[in-house]
Predict the structure.
Amino acid sequence: MAMGTVTIVMYHYVRDLRRSRYPRLKALDLDLFREQLAYIKRHYVIITMEELIFAVEQRRGAWRLPPNAALLTFDDGYLDHFINVFPLLDEMRVQGSFFPPARAIRERKVLDVNKIHFVLAACEDPSEIADTVWRAGAAHGLDLAVANERAPKSRHDRPEVAFIKRALQSELPREVRAPLLDKLFARYVTEDEAAFAAELYMNVDHLRCLMRHGMFIGCHSDDHVRLGQLDAEEQARQIDGALEFLVEIGVDLDGWVMCYPYGDVNETLLEILRARRCRIGLTTRVGLAGAENDPLLLPRLDTNDLPKRADAPPNQWATHAGLNGYASQGGR
Ligand SMILES: [Zn+2]
C-alpha cells in the first residue's frame, strides 16, 4: 500500500519570520522548513510532477511510485519561494511544483486573500479589525453573527481571525468588502499596492529561472477566486487566462497541472479541465493521494500536518504510508 500512494505537501509563505517586516504573518519559518525538508528527505522519496503524471497515466490498479513518495507543492507564487525555498531544493537536487496566480503577477496586484493576511499581521490586535468588519456589516444591514455561528471551525485559525477572514473573503457582499479591505490594507500595511506586490510575488523571470532549474510550474487560475462558485464561461476564462500566462513563461501545456484556489472545484470545472487535457488536479482536501482518487481531485497534506524537526519520529501520516518498519531503524 505504501507503493501506490504519494504524500503531496502544500506550502504557502516560507520566510525567516524574525528578520522579516511582518513577524506575525502566519508563515512557515525558514528554519522549520529546513527541518521539515530534512525530515521528508529521511522518510520519503521526493518525486517530480512528471513522475507522478507518468504513474497516473500508466496505472493499472495501483500507481507505480517509489515507496513513501512525496511531492512538494508551493501555492500562490510568493517571492518567498524563489528566495528561500528554491536554493534549498536546488541544493538537494529535488523538484518543487509552483502555482502562481497569473493576474496578480502580470498586473502587480495584491490578492484579497494576501491583503487580509498582511492586515492581520500588521495589526497588533485582531479584535480591532473584527470590530471594523462587524460595524461595516451592520451598516449594510448584515448580521455577521448568524453566519459566524454556522461556520465550521477552522483547522488553523482562532475564531476571531477566522471570522475576519470569512467576512472579508466571502460573507460581505463584494461592493462592501473590496473597498473595506482596501481601506484596511492602506491603513495598516501600505498605500503602494504595486510596490508591495513586487516584493510579495515572483515575476516572470523568477518563474522562468525556476523552470530552467527543473522546477515545475502549474496553473492556479487567473484571479485566484473560488472557481466552484463561477459559471462555466467564467471558469473557462479563469483557466484559459492562466494557461496563456504559463505559455508565456514557457510551460509545455502537454502535461499541465491544476491547483484549485481554496481547493474549490465542481463538475463543470472538471469538464473544462478534461477538455484541455489537464493531467492532475490538486485540492486542499487532507489525505494521501493514490489510485483510488480521481487524478483531477488529489488530496494534499498541509505543512502543519507533518513534523518540523529533522529527527522527529514519523507521525500518523507516515504510518499511513506504511513507514512503521522503515522508521524504527531510522535512528530516533
Ligand atoms: Zn492559492
About this structure: The chain has two domains: 6-107+202-328, 112-195. The longest strand covers residues 69-75. The pocket of zinc ion is lined by residues 75-76, 220, 224, 261 (CB under 6 Å).
